[in-house]
Design brief:
50% of the residues lie in helices and 12% in strands. The chain is an alpha/beta fold. The mean pLDDT is 95.
Length: 231
Amino acid sequence: MPKHIGIVGCSAEGAALCYRTICMEAPEMLGEHRHPEITMHTYPLSDYMDAIYVDDWEKVGELMVSSARILAGAGAEFAISPDNTIHQAFGYVESRSPIPWLHIARVVAEEAKHRGFSRLGILGTRYLMEGPVYRQTMTEFEIEQVIPPEDSRKRINGIIFKELVNALFTDSSRAYFHDEITRLREHGCDAVVLGCTEIPLIVEPEESALPTLDSTRLLAKAAFRKSVETI
């Protein structure tokens, strides 16, 4: 039997996309309408943001571990979170969780390395772009990273929290993201990480100036592979 997957949700749109991707990947291997057992737990996004606003990453980690315990109690055998930003607390989580986790940035870095990319543009929340999650992971994989300038980071952050997490996808914001990707290409990037779980809902790969690394779907696919690895 496939392993039971636990999803630690944070924002609704990203968690839903991750869940749907697992369910859509599975039938090709497992048969029509079949997918691994999946349990999701989410605390309100506001609980996470209250901690993030004051740079309390231990509190973020406590929320993630609490979700993991609930998922383990429901039978989940490993956990994922499609939220990139909260992975800043991963060091706290990994040693305290009752079940193992997949790390979203590692999944992205492995895909980038496999595809031969060496200089990645990073798009996400301000906390993600300015924080250590991708910087540390890409250093480990010997991949360079580039983030947009400060004014662009502020606007991207605003679009994410005022629009995308609320399922608002406007043409002007879509155009802005694509313009930022073009600028990253001009700075020598050979691919771009869609490092907020909602960005894949507004950036069209076929319209992007760079190949896209969709962190949400890559994580979901990695979770499915882990779920069925012993079948």
